[in-house]
Design a protein that fits this description.
10 helices; Shikimate_DH; single chain; Rossmann fold; six-stranded mixed beta sheet; binds 2'-monophosphoadenosine-5'-diphosphate; NADP; Shikimate dehydrogenase (NADP(+)); aromatic amino acid biosynthesis; six-stranded parallel beta sheet
């Protein structure tokens, strides 16, 4: 039996952990899956996608910088992809039409709620950042019915736009937007969705967002403690998590979308931690 072919597309792509994650899922589930990494030229993402599916490929994950293009390219979008404004998962439907999905939001919810046992229902949540990464996760987070969500961003207008967009669908939840200076803590959960740490920077919030029981979650991950989580630990946070679990959970959801089989994630997260 030949394996069904899947891949992750990005630029650059050599650092991607997705081939490793999906090969662990394939081993674990016995699914006949082969998963590779493809670097698409910046000027021809669409050509790369069409070539892959024209040659029998079954599904793609999409990463930086192509998630918005993947969303635009698709002929159909799932509801969660529609709201996210970006796609990390592509496949063909029964009419061979390209479908865009987004599993990032489910990924962070499963990691927080199921892997770390963080209660989301009724929680007071602070989300830092208002770019594509935050838009991708807000819908599934709000679906968990937190009491309130404050979206704080350096550029306030972007946070306000997200609050307007998601406020329409989640009218029962107190959803607000502000700049970093206006944030008043503490919160039950603080999620860093900015890319500040890529430049070794921190969002300019004060440490009073962190109380004795605050959970801090950085959507970034790295071998060492992330810049943001280190800042949180230095200011008294006791429970800090990085985004490795989210990465594995979004992959597991994509695997489920494609194969109808849900991999067990905890062993895979452990394995990646020690790679
Ligand atoms: P991504 O897909 O990672 O979300 P993005 O759409 O470019 O990328 O968004 C990056 C996010 O990180 C934005 O919220 C950005 O703030 P602005 O909207 O004000 O640009 C935030 N960000 C990036 N660098 C930052 C820094 N040094 N301090 C604070 N926020 C930063």
């Amino acid at each position: 039996m030949t394996n069904d072919l899947y891949a992750v597309v990005g630029n650059p792509i050599s650092h991607s952990k997705s081939p490793r994650i999906h090969s662990l899922f394939a081993q674990q589930t016995g699914e006949a899956v082969e998963y590779t990494a493809i670097q698409a030229p910046l000027e021809d993402f669409a050509g790369t996608v069409h070539h892959f599916f024209d040659h029998g490929g079954k599904g793609l994950n999409i990463t930086v910088p192509f998630k918005e293009q993947a969303w635009t390219l698709a002929e159909h979008r799932t509801h969660r992809a529609e709201l996210a404004g970006a796609a990390n998962t592509l496949y063909l439907d029964q009419e061979d039409q390209l479908v865009a999905d987004n599993t990032d939001g489910v990924g962070i919810v499963r990691d927080l709620r199921d892997n770390h046992g963080v209660p989301l229902k009724g929680a007071r949540v602070l989300v830092l950042g208002a770019g594509g990464a935050v838009r991708g996760v807000l819908g599934p987070l709000l679906d968990e019915q937190p009491a309130s969500v404050v979206v704080a961003n350096r550029t306030v207008a972007r946070a306000e736009a997200l609050a307007r967009l998601f406020g329409r669908e989640h009218s029962g939840i107190e959803l607000s937007a502000c700049g970093f200076e206006q944030v008043e803590g503490p919160f039950d959960l603080v999620i860093n969705g900015t890319s500040a740490s890529l430049k070794g920077d921190l969002p300019a919030i004060t440490a009073d967002v962190i109380g004795a029981d605050t959970v801090v979650y950085d959507m970034m991950y790295s071998l060492q403690t992330t810049t943001f989580n280190q800042w949180a630990l230095d200011h008294g946070a006791v429970r800090v998590f990085d985004g490795l679990g989210m990465l594995v959970e979004q992959a597991a959801e994509a695997f489920f979308v494609w194969r109808g089989v849900r991999p067990e994630t905890s062993a895979v997260i452990e394995e990646l931690r020690t790679d």
